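Query structure, 418 tokens:
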């Protein structure tokens, strides 16, 4: 019985993982590109349109609305014959002949032979439609590279006019680089991180994630400023950076310490977004410390305080004030007298216009460290902000009262003789 329960539990866990991985994949998918062969004829057999291979998106459709509707119900390599009534063809207007395409008379019923050759996913890698990945060949399994993974790829980089500016990994060994180490452009880095082993994809990268507003000399050509670039990429193989669940407790602490140091270096280089990511990675190694010894728990606590404080500094630089406030609160849960956490949370509160809360934090910080110059300067800034907002409030309410007075109704008089 126990064995049966264990098996059912394992099956449920695997099913859940399968569902989660599918959901993760679907969240990346922006649209599907469909490849079909078709032949369309009138009822008398007259050929009006034919293609031995055409691609279109389900959203945009092709030829007539019937094709887009039909492919949604089909499997890869499936062939069907459609009888298409006018409302799903060309309706009362019909369609005139154009080039090699024949005319479709008004209210014509069409017979269409349709084959679904393939479909390809187009994924929005960066969630802002500035790095799009079109899968040309599906990869294996569910595993993808993580931050710090060493990947081996074959790639060709092209400009919009087809000029090849880079070709790596095709002649000898695959081209190798480490994810999130700025060894390739940001858009390519992110796209490869979303791929599976063996996957081949066409990646379209806008300038913001490519070479930006300056021209860049690459190995085979110069990439002009503000260029959208295109890469055909094959992920040959990858070795993931060791995950926290594969580490013992001391390895987790060392890994967290290493990520913290990497974050510090990135912060000094004013790369705040990437620094923040490193501090968050460090926290994942030591977040759950129930298996740690007392000494290791103390080491982890020091690292948690440092990483969250440094991450809060990143969030302030990135103007993500709510996140900065939450991180400082986490530090204060571990050390209620941490002056830096009080100071940085006060900075966040000021930007969020929670001036009363900012004052509470600053006063507490000054109780602990009365001579702290940074906190004193922040208190001065806070008082100026309070004065500014009080002035704005006075003007606002003054204007309201003035408008109310201006629109006061004319007093009614009563005829005493009535």
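Result returned for the query:
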């Amino acid at each position: 019985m126990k064995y049966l329960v264990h098996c059912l539990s394992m099956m449920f866990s695997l099913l859940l993982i399968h569902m989660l991985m599918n959901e993760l994949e679907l969240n990346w998918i922006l649209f599907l590109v469909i490849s079909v062969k078709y032949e369309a004829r009138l009822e008398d057999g007259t050929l009006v349109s034919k293609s031995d291979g055409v691609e279109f998106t389900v959203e945009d459709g092709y030829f007539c609305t019937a094709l887009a509707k039909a492919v949604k119900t089909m499997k890869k390599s499936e062939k069907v014959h459609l009888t298409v009534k006018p409302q799903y063809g060309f309706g009362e207007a019909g369609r005139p002949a154009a080039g090699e395409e024949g005319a479709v008379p008004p209210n014509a019923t069409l017979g269409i032979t349709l084959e679904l050759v393939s479909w390809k996913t187009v994924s929005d890698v960066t969630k802002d439609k500035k790095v799009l990945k079109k899968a040309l060949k599906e990869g294996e399994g569910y595993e993808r590279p993580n931050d710090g993974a060493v990947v081996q790829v074959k790639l060709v980089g092209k400009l919009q006019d087809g000029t090849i500016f880079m070709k790596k990994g095709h002649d000898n060994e695959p081209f190798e680089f480490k994810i999130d180490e700025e060894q390739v452009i940001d858009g390519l880095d992110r796209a490869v991180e979303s791929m599976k082993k063996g996957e081949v994809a066409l990646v379209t990268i806008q300038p913001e994630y490519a070479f930006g507003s300056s021209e860049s000399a690459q190995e085979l050509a110069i990439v002009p400023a503000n260029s959208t670039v295109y890469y055909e990429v094959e992920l040959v193989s990858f070795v993931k950076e060791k995950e926290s669940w594969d580490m013992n407790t001391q390895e987790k602490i060392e890994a967290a310490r290493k990520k913290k140091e990497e974050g510090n270096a990135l912060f000094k280089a004013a790369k705040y977004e990437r620094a923040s990511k490193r501090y968050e990675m460090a926290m994942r190694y030591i977040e759950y410390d129930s298996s740690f010894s007392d000494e290791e728990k103390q080491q982890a606590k020091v690292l948690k305080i440092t990483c969250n404080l440094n991450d809060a500094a990143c969030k302030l630089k990135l103007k993500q004030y709510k996140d900065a406030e939450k991180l400082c609160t986490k530090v204060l849960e571990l050390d209620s007298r941490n002056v830096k956490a009080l100071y940085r949370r006060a900075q966040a509160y000021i930007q969020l216009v929670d001036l009363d809360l900012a004052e509470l934090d600053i006063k507490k910080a000054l109780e602990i460290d009365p001579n702290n110059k940074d906190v004193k300067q922040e208190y001065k800034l806070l008082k100026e902000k309070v004065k500014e907002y009080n002035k704005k409030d006075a003007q606002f309410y003054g204007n309201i009262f003035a408008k109310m007075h201006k629109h006061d109704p004319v007093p009614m008089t009563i005829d005493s003789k009535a």
